[in-house]
Amino acid sequence: MENKRKKTNYKFRRFIGIILLILIIFFVYKSIRGKTYTNHKTAFPTFTLYKDEVDAKSYNILKEKVYYSNADGIALYNASEGQKVPVIYDIVVINLMNDVSSLKDELIKVNSALNYKLNKKPTEKISEEEIESIKKIQKDIRDENLLQAIEDINNLDLNTKQSISISELTELMNLSVEELNSKKQELLKQISRSNIYYQAEYSGIVSYKIDGLEKYYKPDDLSIYTRDYLREHSRRIENETKTQVEKGDMLFKLIDNFSYNMALSIEDLSSLGDIKIGDKLNVELSENNIIRGNVAKINKSKDKSGVVILYLDEMIDKLYSERIRNVKIVKSKQKCYKIPKSAIIKRKGIFGVYVQEIHGLVKFVPIDVIQPLNSSSYVSSGDKNGVIKISDKEYKTITINDSIVLNPKTVDDSQILN
């Protein structure tokens, strides 16, 4: 009986021992496996373009002239907004709405008298001039250009052969051909006075966006453009293009499209570094829309702010219509990676990140921080081989395919390969 009890206790102790051994092996295995196969929270770098920029406000200083109506009448506009026109191009014609019907009747009689004097016999055949006039009228109607159509119809009336009795020309027939031609030119001159033509004095851009600041922004004296001056002359008006105009109304402005200036108001001139006259600056108007100009004048304020004035000869068609705008001066730009700021650590005096390898192991990879932000940082992508230089030593940096550990504190020293 006692032997049986001893045998039972031995089996029980053996069973307990086996269970304890299994538990020990299990916990050791779990401990080792847990350290080796920990998966960290990671993210991949974002390839982007970093731009070192300075905020500024720009003011266009253009070679421009505003044209005003010299009389009351109906305005006919022959150029669209932003259209480039050559010199002596008819931009606007104002019809004064004068009654010139009697003058036109007299001109028809003078033409008939001249035809008799010169033995030009009436013919039913339509002349080339009449055909061209008819084509112009048809085009005016298609374009819904009614004022021009009326003018061309009047011209057709003057050039079309009229049935005039010789008895109506008695007084005119006593005049010589030279006198008749002189009278004809005088009548044409009087008839033409019913219209006022506004022509381009030079080739340039036509704009109806008149802001009322044209008289304050002229390229004559660049030294006047201080920050105070720009602030005082920044209130714009909106001009409305009208068909029925009165004397003194603004019609349009003509802008020289060859060169212009731009004043850049800057809070801190030192942010541009040691700039001087003749240096080139890149100004970003909008995304991927950058103009390049030469520094023509620097007007410093009593504080650290000031105005930099550029000379430009490109892209005026992109910015002429808006005199004042917020811009960025691009000092430099480079391709780089954007990574979470939380991933960056400093190890042995070098900034870097942990890149996850297999089985939860990680590798420390040096980085070169270009610009830290609130939650992320721009870091260099290195040369074409992905190599960066830190304190005259070269290091292989991260790549676009590296899985970066977001929280380095979760990495145990035993998991670091280097």
From TrEMBL:
Domain RND related beta-barrel: 262-333
Tree of life domain: Bacteria
Chain ranges passing through the membrane: 12-29
Residue ranges of domain RND related barrel-sandwich hybrid in the record: 64-256
Pfam family, one: BSH_RND_rel
Keywords annotated in UniProt: Membrane, Transmembrane, Transmembrane helix
InterPro entries named in the record: Beta-barrel_RND-rel (IPR058729), BSH_RND-rel (IPR058709)
Listed name of the protein: Membrane fusion protein
Organism: Peptoniphilus stercorisuis
